[in-house]
Amino acid sequence: MEYYISNFSNVKKEEVKIKGSKGSFIQWLVTKDHGAHYAVRRFTLEPNGVIAPHVHKYQETVIILKGSTKVCVGREVKELHENDFIFIDSGVEHAFYNGMDPLEFICIIDYVDDMSIHPVDRSCI
């Protein structure tokens, strides 16, 4: 495929399935099915939404489009706001905790042999 054009409204929105997550949704915008060597995903979190602590082997870059969030990364808590971004290396535990306003971010990941996600049974905030 030489190119692909779409709109957020045309992409299936699914609940994030990581154990302990709530009010969080994912859309896979660009994937290997389009011929890409990476994936671009859009996440939306409702007020007080959570993507629970987890770890995986792929790297990711998260770009905040709307709202703000507390990100647990390793043993630290960072606050990210609109237009902020964070790179999270493979094997680093992380989680996202939303506040009272809707949150929207783009997440770009690489494809690795093991794409599994492993929940981590701890809270950092």
UniProtKB/TrEMBL annotation:
Location of the Cupin type-2 domain: 42-108
Signal peptide: none
Pfam short name (any one): Cupin_2
InterPro entries xref list: Cupin_2 (IPR013096), GPI/OXD (IPR051610), RmlC-like_jellyroll (IPR014710), RmlC_Cupin_sf (IPR011051)
Keywords tagged on the record: Metal-binding
Statement: the UniProt record of this protein carries the keyword Metal-binding: yes
GO molecular function, one term: metal ion binding
Keyword Metal-binding: yes
Name by which UniProt lists this protein: Cupin 2 domain-containing protein
Originating species: Metallosphaera cuprina (strain Ar-4)
